[in-house]
Amino acid sequence: MNIRTFAAFVIIGILTPNALLAVADGPDFYAVRNVKQNDVLNMRDKPNAKAKVVGTIPFDARGIENAGETFPEVKSDMDSPVWCKIRYKDAAGWVACRYLMEDSGE
Predict the structure, then answer these.
(1) pLDDT at res. 33
(2) Angle CA(91)–CA(95)–CA(99) in degrees, nearest 5?
(3) Model-level pTM?
(4) Which H helix or E strand runs over 86?
(5) According to the model, what pLDDT value does residue 4 have?
(6) What's phi and psi for 104, nearest 5 deg?
(7) Cβ atoms 100, 64 nearer than 8 A
(8) From the first residue on, what is the mean pLDDT of each consecutive set of 10 residues in the chain (106 residues)?
(9) What burial letters (b/e) apply to 43-68, b meaning 16+ CB within 10 Å?
(10) Which of 2, 3, 69, 89 is the most buried (most CB within 10 A)?
């Protein structure tokens, strides 16, 4: 690679840093947020609020594993997924992403 090509990549990277990042891989682990103390977060078999509940997650749960899928699929940094596929204890399913935040997994 010559110096001009390298310089062009550097300039593109500076001007459009989000274009060089992976889009939807997200954190490794989540914690529950915005769920009241006397409530639980429902985990569903499909990314739909009317889908069958396959498990519940306590309001203060941490270490929820990101299963690497979102719905709708995130195609750019401007998109926000509505549903996140997760694994918690022995169950896997979909939860509303707005109830999750990044966690260290510890």
Answers:
(1) 97
(2) 125
(3) 0.71
(4) strand 83-88
(5) 52
(6) -75, -20
(7) yes
(8) 47 38 65 97 96 97 95 75 93 96 87
(9) bbeebeeeeeeebebeeebeebbbee
(10) 69
The DSSP 8-state label assigned to residue 89 in this structure reads T
What CA–CA distance (Å, rounded) separates 14 from 20? 10
* Joined tokens for residue 43: 């985990």
d(CA 63, CA 61): 7
Polymer length in residues for the chain: 106
Q: Write out the two tokens for 8.
A: 């062009």
* Residue 99: count of CB within 10 angstroms of its CB: 17
Q: What are the beta bridge partners of residue 106?
A: none
The domains of the chain, with CATH numbers, are: 22-103 (2.30.30.40)
**Tokens at 76, concatenated:** 């750019």
